[in-house]
Amino acid sequence: MTKPPSRIEQRKAELRREIIDTAFDCFAEKGYHATGIADIATRLGIGHGTFYRYFANKRDIIDHVIDEVSGRVFGSLDQGMEPESAATLDEYAALIDRISDSLNRVLLDDPRTAQLLLFHATGIDDELTDRIYGLLDATEILMARYLEHGVRVGYLRADVDTASTAKAALGMIVAGVVTGMRTPDPAAMAVYSHAVRRLFIDGVAATVR
Q1: In the 3-class helix/strand/coil scheme, how is the chain assigned residue by residue?
Q2: Tens of pLDDT along 53-73?
Q3: Among 86, 118, 189, 190, which one is least packed by beta carbons within 10 Å?
């Protein structure tokens, strides 16, 4: 039987979580290069020594922040959102709506996420840039799976180029996120989101709804 964590262990885990979240704030606001360990430690009210007990350096913590971000993005897609959960075009449309709503909450309700992924992380070093590209590639592959399933079942057109369509859809999503960051108007974003959903549904449907 696993021994429950002690209060000291719980506090250490909480502080580690707080350091990551505070670094997330600082990196999103000021950028990685303009943020120092002192900025993170001062905002959190801890000493430099405390920071270095949890993370080796600033580069170490950005990896953990990216882990947090990618976990939020992919964690927003719950077990009821698998490609196989849609057997008809209407079910596929409802599924796309749910996925879009979940991603919007992650990417727009917390502006730090998009700021870090789209503007800051790719300018740090080649390794981190490759990680971000890897996240985009994984997202494209996941989106292609939804299309491939629809083609197999028959509610999407048989001639759909699933890989290219997934790439195009991801591009529309990224463009919407950038627009939402520049002009945070919920009504305008709802209109944009609706347009993207219609393209991703009616544009590939086997029959016009």
Answers
A1: CCCCCCHHHHHHHHHHHHHHHHHHHHHHHHCCCCCCHHHHHHHHCCCHHHHHHHCCCHHHHHHHHHHHHHHHHHHCCCHHHCHHHCCCHHHHHHHHHHHHHHHHHHHHCCHHHHHHHHHHHHHCCHHHHHHHHHHHHHHHHHHHHHHHHHHHHCCECCCCCHHHHHHHHHHHHHHHHHHHHHCCCHHHHHHHHHHHHHHHHHCCECCCC
A2: 999 999 999 888 888 888 877
A3: 190
